[in-house]
Design brief:
The complex is a heterodimer of chains A (about 50) and B (about 425). Chain A is of the alpha+beta class and about 50 residues long. Helix content of chain A is about 45%, strand content about 15%. Chain A has a two-stranded antiparallel ribbon. The N and C termini of chain A lie far apart (about 60 Å). The longest helix of chain B has about 30 residues. The two termini of chain B are about 25 Å apart. In chain B, about 15% of the residues lie in helices and about 50% in strands. Classes of the chains: A alpha+beta (about 50), B mainly beta (about 425). Chains A and B meet through helix 1, strand 1 and strand 3 of A and helix 2, strand 18, strand 19, strand 20 and strand 22 of B. Strand 1 of chain A pairs parallel with strand 22 of chain B, so a sheet runs across the interface.
Chain lengths: ~50, ~425
């Protein structure tokens, strides 16, 4: 296996791991609201109506 | 031409019998023609008087590898004794004649991108059908036939060569190697041109390095990614199958709840609280779907707040359900989505209430040729709200798929594009 293919295999493994992590945490960067890795979108402090 | 040991020829310094300039005869005893590098006249190298047998007919060009240069190619030292510029089949190329007193002559062919090492064959390849030929167990595909002409020549050669010499050429190629048959009225010769690795000739003769990526590839040049395309494809396919398999696994907490609300058209805000909604996982995705099939030229704005009971932290999202219809010159038209979805990602585990704020509006402006429907909409719009916990997001799936497929797809594109450019090249 060439070095490029080895790196590609590692890349695929990383992508699959990230996907599993996103799936387990119910995460999507395209969601309308909720948590992302870096910030909270659509959330605000206690302001219950 | 022979590979048998032969006496080292003496380099003879002579004066051109046409212009009088000093020139060297490097392969004395082997060369037949000697073209003066100062005036371009062709001298008879077999004649001690070096009789002029051809006059210069054009301006002299300077070879990139000077005559007399020595360099090691394929493990042997060669001296450049002759240089030709040839053209045919819409392309031009350079040929250097190399000489080694113990190994005879070879050709160094330069297509301005890569160099090929040419060896004249002492036997004719056999025809194997389909326009293909084979030699030493290697099959070559028929590539093209054309007339090649000499546009410039300098140095010494083992045959009579002059500017405007013509030969009929047929090329046969396989990755890394090409067979060229050259015919004129008196003889037919076959030459095997093997592609040299990038940098070998540049290093041997002290030339500047050439770019691998640009320029038209030679007809016998193998795609630079040929050995990676299929392994990358199979690796990517395995990763895609693994991705699909992982995405098909349903979360144990996956469940769906539903409730009904109604909103009065052009009425006041109407907020409904639905709960409790238990989210047992550490983090989970929640989808809230609204279903308002009775909308007719009206819309409903939804504001959702998913509020955690203990901390009162709220996650907010908004959607709009809408449906419009009318008639214009093309007939009836409809637009809108009366089943919008609001998505909540990575919601921490806990017990939540969903606050649903719905505002319904009637569309009355009737812009352009649109006409309001004649059927009167109901005053109250019934809406079904469906809450799905443990929902599966398609976005990360497609992002992961793209990340996996991108490299094999790029390799495939490079491979196909290279093949197309190679076939356009046609000649050497």
């Amino acid at each position: 296996m060439s070095r490029a293919l080895f790196y590609y295999a590692l890349w695929c493994l990383l992508v699959l791991l990230l996907f599993v992590a996103a799936n387990v945490n119910g995460y999507s960067p395209f969601a309308d609201s909720g948590h992302s890795v870096f910030f909270v979108r659509g959330a605000s402090g206690p302001h219950h109506k | 031409m022979s590979d048998d040991p032969a006496p080292t020829p003496t380099v003879r310094a002579i004066n051109c019998t046409s212009c009088g300039a000093p020139i060297s005869l490097r392969a004395a005893g082997y060369s037949v023609s000697l073209i003066c590098e100062h005036c371009g006249s062709t001298l008879d190298a077999t004649d001690d008087a070096f009789k002029v047998i051809g006059k210069a007919s054009q301006a002299l060009a300077v070879p990139q590898i000077p005559l007399g240069s020595r360099g090691t190619v394929r493990g042997l030292e060669w001296e450049v004794v002759g240089f030709m510029r040839r053209y045919g089949d819409g392309a031009g190329w350079y040929e250097y004649l190399l000489f080694n007193p113990y190994h005879g002559y070879r050709f160094l062919i330069d297509d301005e991108r890569r160099f090929s090492f040419g060896t004249m064959l002492d036997r004719r390849p056999e025809k194997i059908g389909g326009g293909r030929v084979a030699i030493d167990g290697d099959a070559y595909d028929r590539l093209s036939s054309y007339t090649a002409r000499v546009s410039f020549v300098v140095g010494e050669f083992y045959w009579r060569v002059t500017t405007d010499d013509e030969v009929a050429v047929s090329d046969y190629a396989r990755p890394g190697s090409m067979l060229s048959r050259e015919r004129n009225d008196s003889e037919e010769t076959w030459t095997r041109n093997e592609l040299l690795p990038f940098g070998e000739v540049e290093t041997a003769f002290g030339l500047a390095k050439r770019s691998r990526l640009f320029g038209r590839p030679a007809a016998h040049e193998e795609s630079p990614v040929a050995d990676m395309v299929w392994p990358a494809f199979w690796l990517g396919l395995c990763a895609c199958i693994a991705l699909i398999f992982m995405s098909a696994i349903e979360r144990p907490s996956h469940d769906t709840f539903s409730t009904s609300v109604s909103a009065r058209l052009d009425g006041p805000d109407h907020a409904v609280v639905y709960g409790p909604i238990d989210l047992p996982d550490r983090r989970t995705g929640v989808f809230v779907r609204a279903f308002a099939p009775t909308l007719d030229n009206s819309w409903v704005d939804f504001d959702y707040s998913l509020v955690e009971r203990r901390s009162q932290i709220s996650y907010d999202a908004s959607t709009t359900a809408e449906f419009y219809s009318g008639y214009d010159s093309d007939g009836r038209w409809t637009e809108g989505n009366y089943r919008p979805v609001a998505t909540f990602a990575g919601i921490p585990g806990g017990t939540y209430d969903l606050v649903i704020d719905a505002q319904a509006h009637r569309w009355t402006s009737g812009t352009g040729s649109a006409m309001p429907s004649y059927s009167a909409p109901p005053e109250d719009v019934p809406i079904t709200i469906e809450i799905e916990r443990g929902a599966f997001f398609a976005g990360p799936f497609w992002l992961a798929m793209l990340a996996i497929v991108a490299w094999p797809a790029a390799l495939l594109y490079i491979h196909i594009d290279f093949g197309q450019r190679r076939h356009k090249e046609g000649g050497r």
